[in-house]
């Protein structure tokens, strides 16, 4: 169902809705037990993209029954003030998840802020403890939403991961590195051979062309071309790049890291962009929030 | 000097002595400032290998001026008792490093124990916070000693790492995964393209044979053969395997994961085993301990 019947396109919106359905049931069960999951967004300044992202997440919270609150702080907020708010949210038992919307102003050290959020409320999975647990194969932490989203897309599209050659383009802290950590584990739906490529990789096209699963998170518009993809390989496009488009209303449009039109005839399953990884990322944030509430109250979600 | 003048052998003992020399100077400077570094070993039961390992580390502490203490607990010690001791050591300001010698008895959860050691005293680099910092590229944590040792061997042998193809055999939490985390970073002496291989990797020999740097930590005696190595590639052997040897005094001997006699004529630089990574691992433990003492007292080691 999730895979388009005619084409080889992975429908991220449909799979996200499956996950939303599961999460909604968990949220209802938690609410009946007196613990409606609570998620707090913190946004600094009026960056238009941050406004849009937080707005989309708020709406999804409403839809699923997560109690969300948004703190909008002025652009000039100091690191100290932000840390004070985080400390209050860490101590508040009705808050199960805390999301500090990046990017933060240059005056604030993001690593300091992410490390200040209680690891138990770190639904973004950015705290070093959660990153460490992920690499160590300890399932007790929180997995960053975007790589977790890609993982769910692969699993729910029945892409064989075990012993697959996975090539990841991009080694960022948000996608590339945690993605490698997920797929290299000795675990079900993992056990892949992972190569992490980046701007300093020699023979990048050669690496791509031996991948059974190619994950592009390199931040370069339409970087992956048809001749870089092994026929039949699964291609996942994480990129979000704004390019000029004279035909578009505001003169620009968003494209991914994969040249979809060129690659789709060659590849096996492939995510469109938009409509692939994007909607899934929010679904995983909602699931992490339900998990945080469940863990805070000692409920086993799997048993609900 | 560290590389044998005639052969392509990396002399791990000589490079370890270089590092010991640097660490000794740091320890002297810290001691003059009133903070002699203190390292505590905790050993459970009388596992012969653990006795030998802790004994070697104690001797090296003596040699360098680190104040070491060893707690030997009975085999039947409970997790709770061990956690109580760790908590006391965490609170003791004269203790800068805590090393719980693995393997622990099966009744004790290693992950729980490693996570109980204060991250600031975790000179083994096993705490999730330190593992997370390593993957995130935050240099404020502690790097596990064996992968840090391999990294220093490469650097001090002038092996080009930037843009190199690195293939790591083995994805353990002690060596393989943190090794990948070190070498994939956007940083000096890193920026490599890393592939992490393991027991479920298809075409393992093919991966090995495209490596510029091949790091074997797979735990299979003499697994890496000449035909798996690209001519001129650097080969680092982390394995410690005991095999039968009728000619040896006790009927066994230790060998690495690399068939040294077969590979050495083909490879570029190569570590012997013993005499390669082993002595380096202790050198990195000593350096981590000096760093822990320096950080605890707010001293910049680089400025000493």
Structural descriptors:
304 residues, alpha/beta, Rossmann fold, globular, four-stranded parallel sheet, homodimer, 14% strand, three-stranded parallel sheet, 2 domains, 10 helices
Question: What's the structural blueprint in terms of helices and strands?
Answer:
The structure is a homodimer of 304-residue chains.
Chain A (H helix, E strand, L loop, with lengths): L11 H21 L5 E7 L3 H17 L2 E7 L5 H13 L5 E4 L9 H7 L11 H9 L8 H12 L8 E5 L6 H9 L8 E5 L6 H6 L3 E4 L17 E4 L3 E4 L7 E4 L4 H4 L13 H20 L8
Parallel strand pairs in A: 1-2, 1-3, 4-5, 4-6, 6-7
Antiparallel strand pairs in A: 8-9
How many beta-strand segments of chain A? 9
- The CATH superfamily name of the largest domain in chain A is NAD(P)-binding Rossmann-like Domain
- Give a short account of the largest sheet of chain A: 4 strands, parallel
The N- and C-terminal alpha carbons of chain A lie at a distance of: 25 Å
Shape of chain A: globular
Any idea what the radius of gyration of chain A is?
A: 19 Å
Write down the overall mean pLDDT of chain A: 95
Task: Please characterize this protein's 3D structure.
The structure is a homodimer of 304-residue chains. Chain A has 304 residues and is of the alpha/beta class. Chain A is 39% helix and 14% strand. Chain A contains 10 helices and 9 strands. In chain A, the strands form 3 sheets. Chain A has a 4-stranded parallel sheet. The relative contact order of chain A is 0.16. At the A-B interface, α5, α7 and β5 of A face α5, α7 and β5 of B. β5 of chain A pairs antiparallel with β5 of chain B, so a sheet runs across the interface.
């Amino acid at each position: 169902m999730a895979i388009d019947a005619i084409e080889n396109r992975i429908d991220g919106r449909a799979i996200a809705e499956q996950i939303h359905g599961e999460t909604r049931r968990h949220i209802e069960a938690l609410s009946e037990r007196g613990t409606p999951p609570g998620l707090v967004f913190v946004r600094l300044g009026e960056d238009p993209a941050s406004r849009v992202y937080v707005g989309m997440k708020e709406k999804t919270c409403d839809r699923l029954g997560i109690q969300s609150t948004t703190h909008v702080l002025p652009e000039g907020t100091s690191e100290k003030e932000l840390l004070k708010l985080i400390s209050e949210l860490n101590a508040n038992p009705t808050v199960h998840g805390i999301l500090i919307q990046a990017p933060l102003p240059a005056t604030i050290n993001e690593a300091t802020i992410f490390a200040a959020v209680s690891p138990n409320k770190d639904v973004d999975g950015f705290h070093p403890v959660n990153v460490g647990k992920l690499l160590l194969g300890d399932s007790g932490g929180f997995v960053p939403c975007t790589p977790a989203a890609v993982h769910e897309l692969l699993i729910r599209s029945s892409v064989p991961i075990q012993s697959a050659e996975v090539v990841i383009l991009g080694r960022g802290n948000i996608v590339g590195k945690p993605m490698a950590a997920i797929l290299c584990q000795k675990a079900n739906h993992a056990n892949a051979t992972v190569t992490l490529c980046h701007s300093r990789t020699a023979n990048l096209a050669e690496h791509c062309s031996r991948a059974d699963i190619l994950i592009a998170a390199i931040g370069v518009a339409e970087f992956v071309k048809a001749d870089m993809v092994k026929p039949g390989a699964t291609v996942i496009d994480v990129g979000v790049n704004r390019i000029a488009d004279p035909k578009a209303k505001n003169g620009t449009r968003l494209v991914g890291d994969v040249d979809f039109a060129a690659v789709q005839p060659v590849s096996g399953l492939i995510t469109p962009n938009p409509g692939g990884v994007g909607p899934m990322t929010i679904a995983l944030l909602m699931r992490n929030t339900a998990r945080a509430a469940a863990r805070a109250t000692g409920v086993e979600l799997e048993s609900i």
